[in-house]
Every structure is written in C-alpha cells, then in structure tokens.
Design brief:
Strand content of chain A: under 5%
Number of domains of chain B: 2
Shape of chain B: globular
Number of domains of chain A: 2
CATH topology of the largest domain in chain B: D-Maltodextrin-Binding Protein, domain 2
CATH topology of the largest domain in chain A: MetI-like fold
CATH superfamily of the largest domain in chain B: Periplasmic binding protein-like II
Strand order of the largest sheet of chain B: 2-1-3-14-6
Largest sheet of chain B: 5 strands, mixed
Structural class of chain B: alpha+beta
Number of helices of chain A: 14
Largest interface: A-B, 39 and 51 residues
Helix content of chain B: 40-55%
Radius of gyration of chain A: 27 Å
Distance between the termini of chain A: 28 Å
Oligomer: heterodimer
CATH class of the largest domain in chain A: Mainly Alpha
CATH superfamily of the largest domain in chain A: MetI-like
Distance between the termini of chain B: 60 Å
Strand order of the largest sheet of chain A: 1-2
CATH architecture of the largest domain in chain A: Orthogonal Bundle
Largest sheet of chain A: 2 strands, antiparallel
CATH architecture of the largest domain in chain B: 3-Layer(aba) Sandwich
CATH class of the largest domain in chain B: Alpha Beta
Number of helices of chain B: 17
Number of strands of chain B: 14
Number of strands of chain A: 2
Radius of gyration of chain B: 28 Å
Helix content of chain A: 55-70%
Chain lengths: 325, 474
C-alpha cells in the first residue's frame, strides 16, 4: 500500500477513531480479499474441501450409494494385497519409464532442429505444436486407425519393410482384445510423443536464452554442432529440462485418457494403468471397492508423485546448472 | 474505486498511449466491461431449464441412456403420456455415462424420479439401497397399478427381481441367437435351412466354412468366439455351467460345465493358431459399419442380438442370412428349450425419488403392450412380454424377431449372473478369456483364479453389508 504516499499527520477517522491511513489499509485488505474471493471460494469449495474429504473417505467403506462407514486403514491394507492394483502400478511405471525419456529426448531434438535458421521454420513449429491442440478423443480415434493391424498406415509401411526378414508387424492396439500384449503399451507411448509440441515450445524458448557468447567460445574451441549441443545447450537449458521432466512425471503417473479410449486397459490388462483402476474402483466396482478404496488409491498416488518429484529435485542438484542472475 | 490519493496519482501519470485514458483507468474499465459482458452472456446464453413444464402439473424427471432414433422413440412415448393426462409432466433427459451419473445424483440426494439403466445394474443398485422396490406395482392392492409378472417371459421376470424383490421394469430386451450367412452355407455345400444345433455340429460346419490361406492366415472364419466378443463370460452356459451360485453366494467359474466350455473355446486357437486368429481379429471392422465381420462375409456365423438386423439393413441389405438357436453341448440339446442369453434395458426408481406415485404411473404406462412393441420395433429388439401382436411381428425390422421371441421365452433362457459384484466378475472373465484365447494360460488355472478373486470380493462385499446392517440395527 505504498501507493498511499507519505504519511502526513491527518485527523482521526470519526467513526472508528483510527488514523485514516490505518482505515485505508484495512479497506485495501478487504478490497483485495474481495477481488480474490472467487478464487478463494473455488479453491476451498472445489479443491481443499474435496481433498480433505477424500482423505477421510480413504479411511471409510464408502460406495457413494450408502453413507461412509469408518474402517481405519483397511482400504490401504487391502490395496497392497490386491493383484490388480500391483498390475496397474506396474503398467503405469512401464508407461512412465518409457514415455518420459522418449518424449524428453524427442522434444529436445525437435527443439534443437527448430532452433536452426531453416527456411519456413515457423511452419514447422506450428506443425509440431498443432497436435497439442487436438482433443484427446479425436487424436485417440486417429491413432486407433493408424495402429489398425490390417488396414492401418503404420503396418502398411512396416509390412513390406519387414517381409524380407520373414517378420510381420504387431497388432498394436487391436480390437476386441486382439492387440499385442507386448506392443500395446509401447503403442500408447509412441502416441504420447505426438503431443510433445508443448515441451518443444518451452525448450525452444530456453534455447534462445542461452548466451550466444558461449556458442562462439565453443566454436572457437573447435566444437562441432553435436558437441555444442551437449556441452553448451543442454547445461544452459537444464533447469527447463528439469521442469519438463517433473511435469512429465506428474502427467504420466496420472495417464488415463488414451488407454481408456483406445484399449480399455486390454489386452489382458496390459495397458490397465493406475488412474483407470482408480476410476473403475470408484464408479464401476461400486459394491466391491467403491469410493473409499479409490480415495485411498488417490492418496497413495499423491504420495508417490510427491516423493518422485522430491527425489528428482534432489538427484538433479548436481546436474542442473543455474546461471547467476 | 480508487482512493483520492490514487486518483491524484493516476491523473498525473503520463499516458502511455493515445487511446482512452491512463493504463490504470483503462484496465479497470476493461475488467468491469469484461465482467459485465460475461454476466450478460451467462444470463442470455447460460444454463436454463431444458424443457418448460406446465406450472399446474407434477413434473417428474426421467433419465435415459438413449440418444438418436432410440431416444426420439422414447421421447415420443413421453410426449404421448404427457398429452394423455393433465396431472403429470414427464421430462426426458438423454444422459451419457448414465450409470456413473445416476449413482452420483443418488449419493447427492438429487436423483431423477426414474432412471433407465441396464439389467446387470439391478443387483448392485438394489444391494446398495440405491433404488426403490417396485413390488407394489404388481397387483392392484395398496396403490398398485395392476402389472402382472406372468405377462413377462420367465427370464425377463428374473431380470426384474433380486433377492426376492422386484426392483426394475424391462422396457426392451434382446435374446442372443445364431446368425448365419446362408449364401456361404450354400457355397460350402451346406443346407442353409439347417443351422448347427449342437457344438459338434457347429465345429463341423465352421470347419467347412473356414478358409485358410497357404501361410495359415484366415481369410474367413466359420465361427469366431471373439466376434463381436461382447460376452466372453457366457460360453459356460451352453455347456450347462454357471459362473455364480446365487443360492449360496459362491463364485463357480471353475464348475465342470465352464471348464468344458473354455476347453472347447481354446480348441480353436489350438487348431488354427493363436497368431492367425488374433491376426484375423485385428483386421475386422467396426460393428456398426459395412466392414462388420458378419456383413462382410469374413465370419460366417456369429452369436448376436436382434439389433444386428438394423446394422444389416443399413450397410448390407442384400445379405442372405437367417437366425437359429445358439448351439449347445451335445447332451444338452432339447428342440423346444433352447439355451439363449437375454439382455435388457431396465427402468428403475432411484432412492430419494420425489414423486413416487407419479413415477410409478409413468413406468406402468411404458409397460403397455403397444408401447413396449413400439419401442422394441424402433430399437430392433424382441418384446419382453409373453404376448406379442401380429402387427409387431409383421412390422419388425428383424424378420426373425419371432425366433428371438422364442429364445427369450425358453425356460432355459439365461441372464447376467445376479450378483452385485458382476462388473468385477465380468472384467475378470474378460481378462482371463484373452489369456486362454492366446493359450497363455489353461482354462483350469484361469477359472480357478477368477473364482479365488471373485469369492474374496463377494465375501468382502457380504461382510461390509452385514457390518452396515448390524450398525443400522444398533
């Protein structure tokens, strides 16, 4: 409230008996609270309260249709004995383990290529970013056709290429559970690379921010483009890489849309990821697992994500380079 | 909104642009205009009541899953009901993901008065106390509306009931028959008037109809258990098996009939090769398309409901096909007592329904023979009622609707197992089926695994129920 200017001795406010400056400060505080009230109401009503309630529900037997009954840690104990839970955990780890490195590498390479003075580069940038604007369901439908075992574009290209070696392309996703158990998850991972446009834009901005002088010095030292990328670009944008890796960990740990639409978790639960099981527990297996169990799963998920984020931050200390401001 | 000091400062701030006052003033004006425009937008274009209801009538809300032509048919029924009397007004809402939304609405205490779900929902909803019993609708005593259980086929009655009570009304249903391609039968030298009656006959005919390319790839399958693959759990029923013993609340996936059935199922990948069968599946088209495996002649026989006639009429009207009873294990064949599955849509009354008597009146209206037949015709299903009119049979888009009616009326017609844990049961069977189909696991091991997991779930569910009941009594 420094805008109020220098405090000069003024008469007291008649109603409150306080100095006008003090009253002004209070009014400003209330005015500020009024302006943030919509956010506060939203935060408390739609985030803080549901989060607190989900913590309580995780300690209850609650199927939405009947009032919750307190059961202590029973849901958590049951979860760790549940084979499908571990299958979902395993699938999510596989997805994240493949998707994060692949997407990070792909985004870095694409950003590095787009950072070069190429003719029509803005068109390429737009083309790379465009898939992130496509709704998830629409892109899933497109990829279902691309992955079609018999008629899909991918296998149409792979089939003649693999034929001389006596190989046939996999069934990828497949319909009616006909997908290839080995390739269904990689298929979802490859599809995730299609949406790296957002990361590319962030990397591109970071690359622009790396001082030119460093590249000039590296060139004078005889470094080629690859060495410059490795020794100058990567350290220069390492904080941004860290940011993207952390957001990727969070996003891939919660992956839901693509497997839900494309595989429904099949074949034989090969793509049945954590969030899908959580959803099914809450809304499909209502009398067997229910919202209590799903809430417990959500809290385990939160703890794991926070733990992974903290671990990433700790491990990154020695490899992330922060330039002096 | 600015204090005098602020205003003084603003007035002395040099303008950054020539347009419209200082940045501060412009921003404030802009924000207020934007908020005003937003508010006006909400008022003009925002949410409002979907349908205007007459003020002098009791309004009941009816949620249904149907959209498109099926939804329009139901809307016509609703409109006629609304015009037929002056006391009740029914509002029809087509809802996606209706079972999830219905359970949330019931939990939130704001359910519709009537909800249209699937028959497999009945046990879970009834066991959870999420729906109201409808026993009073049968008979005329106690405000009943005079419906009679004996007007429905035996299997349909089973679908309406759970643990001795009536919880749902069936408005449309479909029995699953064997659809076979008569042209392919003729081409293979088979009698197109003699579909297979037993599993042995099915195997023999399927073998004659199957076309295998030199490399082992299947050009055409006589029969494929995974086409369309909607009911991977039901094969045991054609061998006398059952997945669930309702009397003793036991999972019985490992029963002899089920084992025999899945040994038969796995005989196909053993014979033709998993890779070839799975490879063929991968190339089959979507159900509602000209590439549908049966329509395209890629699979000669499929187990399907009467609604397939609608798809055939739309994409392959020239297809020469017929419908028979599903083949059963050799020792189980009885000519007049076919074994066939029955599926249906149901009407239920959610807990917390605000206008019970009025909702019952509308539900009873939907059970009139002419209404049931009108809906069944548009939905291309057979009638759940025992009696059907000649007009219904003659005007139905499926010329084999009479066959489907006979399948539904059979004393050996079966329905989804009546357990509240059915969704989990179904998914366990689905996952297990694909392991068996790929020969990755034996039927003995898979079915024993399903039994173990499901019994655990059933026991836990029962324990929870008993705990709740004990708590309620206390």
């Amino acid at each position: 409230m420094s805008q109020l200017g220098p405090q000069i001795a003024r008469p007291m406010d008649r109603a409150s008996g306080r100095a006008p400056a003090e009253v002004g400060r209070e009014v400003a505080v209330w005015r500020g609270l009024l302006w943030v009230a919509p956010w506060l109401v939203g935060f408390v009503g739609f985030l803080a309260a549901p989060v607190a309630m989900s913590l309580y529900y995780s300690l209850t037997d609650y199927n939405l249709l009947q009032p919750p009954a307190y059961v202590g840690l029973s849901n958590y104990r049951e979860m760790f004995r549940d084979a499908v839970f571990w299958k979902a955990v395993g699938n999510t780890v596989i997805y994240a383990g493949m998707s994060i490195p692949l997407c990070t590498a792909a985004a870095l390479v694409i950003a590095a290529l787009l950072n070069r003075p190429v003719k029509g580069v803005s068109i390429y940038r737009a083309a790379i970013f465009l898939p992130t604007l496509v709704p998830a369901v629409a892109s899933a439908m497109v990829w279902l056709w691309l992955y079609n075992g018999d008629l899909g574009l991918i296998n149409s290209v792979l089939r003649p290429a693999l034929a001389p070696f006596g190989l046939t392309p996999p069934n990828w996703i497949g319909l009616r559970g006909s997908g290839d158990k080995l390739w269904a998850m990689p298929a979802l991972v490859f599809m995730s690379v299609w949406g790296v446009g957002q990361s590319v834009v962030i990397y591109l901005a970071a690359m622009r921010d790396v001082p030119r002088a460093l590249y000039e010095a590296a060139s004078l030292d005889g470094m080629g483009p690859v060495a410059r990328f490795w020794h100058v670009t990567l350290p220069g944008i390492s904080p941004v890489i860290l940011f993207n890796v952390i957001t990727s960990i969070i996003a891939s740990s919660q992956v839901f849309g693509a497997p839900y639409i494309m595989t429904q978790g099949g074949p034989d639960r090969a793509t049945y990821v954590y969030s899908m099981y959580l959803y099914d527990a809450a809304f499909v297996y209502i009398t067997d697992l229910g919202m209590g169990y799903a809430s417990a799963m959500a809290w385990v998920q939160l703890v794991v994500i926070v733990g992974l984020t903290a671990l990433t931050l700790i491990l990154s200390r020695s490899i992330v380079y922060y330039r002096a401001a | 909104m600015t204090s005098g000091v602020d205003a003084a400062r603003v007035s002395h701030t040099p303008k950054r642009s020539g347009a419209g006052g200082s940045i501060g003033t412009w921003t404030r004006r802009g924000v207020l205009s934007a908020l005003g425009a937003g508010a006006a937008g909400v008022v003009l274009l925002g949410p409002r009541r979907a349908q205007d209801a007459p003020a002098d009538r009791i309004v009941i809300d009816y949620w249904e899953k149907w959209t498109g032509e099926e939804g329009r048919a139901m809307q016509r029924v609703v409109d006629r009901f609304n015009q037929s009397q002056a006391r009740i007004f029914v509002r029809y809402f087509a809802i996606s993901d209706i079972d999830r939304k219905a359970s949330i609405a019931i939990a939130g205490g704001t359910p519709p008065d009537i909800v249209g779900l699937w028959n497999y929902n009945v046990p879970a909803y009834a066991a959870s106390g999420a729906i109201e019993p409808l026993d009073e609708m049968f008979g005329t005593a106690g405000g009943g509306v005079g419906l009679r259980l004996e007007d429905y086929a035996p299997a349909v009655r089973e679908m309406m009931r759970y643990q001795g009570g009536t919880w749902a009304l069936v408005n449309t249903c479909g029995s699953i028959g064997l659809y076979y391609n008569r042209r392919l039968f003729r081409d293979a030298g088979l009698d197109p008037e003699a579909p297979p009656r037993t599993i042995s006959e099915l195997d023999a005919i399927a073998e004659k109809l199957t076309v295998v390319e030199p490399g082992g790839r299947l050009q055409r399958a006589g029969f494929l258990h995974t086409e369309p693959g909607w009911w991977t759990w039901f094969w045991g029923r054609y061998f006398g098996g059952n997945l669930y013993d309702a009397m003793n609340d036991r999972a019985t996936a490992g029963a002899a009939g089920n084992l025999e059935a899945y040994r038969w199922v796995t005989g196909y990948p053993r014979k033709y090769g998993t890779k070839n069968l799975v490879g063929m599946q991968a190339g089959l088209g979507n159900y509602s398309s000209a590439q549908n495996a049966f329509l395209a002649g890629r699979v000669a026989m499929v187990l399907q409901g009467p609604w397939l006639a609608n798809v055939i009429g739309q994409y392959a009207p020239e297809l020469d096909y017929a419908v028979g009873a599903p083949p059963v294990a050799d020792g189980l064949y009885v000519r007049d007592e076919p074994i066939a599955m029955l599926d249906s849509d149901v009407l239920m009354m959610p807990r917390g329904c605000r206008h019970r008597a009025e909702a019952l009146e509308f539900m009873a209206y939907t059970q009139r023979q002419e209404i049931v037949e009108e809906l069944s015709t548009v939905h291309c299903k057979n009638s759940p009622l025992v009696r059907t009119s000649e007009r219904f049979i003659a005007g139905h888009p499926n010329r084999y609707v009479k066959v489907h009616g006979e399948l539904a009326a059979s004393p050996r017609a079966f329905i989804f197992p009546r357990t509240a844990s059915w969704s989990m049961f179904r998914d366990e069977m689905e996952a297990g089926f694909h392991r068996m189909w790929r020969l990755e696991d034996s039927p003995e091991s898979v079915l024993a695994g399903v039994d173990a997991r499901m019994q655990m779930a059933i026991d836990a569910s029962r324990a929870r129920r008993e705990r709740r009941e004990a708590g309620a009594e206390a």
